Amino acid sequence: xxxxxxxxxxxxxxxxxxxxxxxxxxxxxxxxxxxxxxxxxxxxxxxxxxxxxxxxxxxxxxxxxxxxxxxxxxxxxxxxxxxxxxxxxxxxxxxxxxxxxxxxxxxxxxxxxxxxxxxxxxxxxxxxxxxxxxxxxxxxxxxxxxxxxxxx
Length: 152
Prior knowledge:
The chain is mainly β and 152 residues long. The chain is built from 2 helices and 8 strands, in the order E-H-E-H-E-E-E-E-E-E.
């Protein structure tokens, strides 16, 4: 089964529980993917990292266009809020690409600077179906409730 929903990656929840991340000081990107990706919930870092060997998120499935750089673009500014057993990651920014031609179904948000796991996926965002852009601009507008919420 291909794209059908947005979700947080179980591996990131696992890593956060081990206190090996400093999300407030890390850098994040969003990379866009086509229909051939099948997002999976997994506690395995190798399955959830961007461009990892054996990862769902390998570059062969990433969109390609003249003004799209492999690996995506920065997610900024970011914020993390923590309540009782709930951590929410969000951004008031809107990642954008100009004068591109591609078809995308969603994107992987990943941690670029985690000191223990390079390019660790934290969440995927399903865009509700195929989003086709032809020689135009493409923006990601995050949900006001946040990009992802982790409950533990």
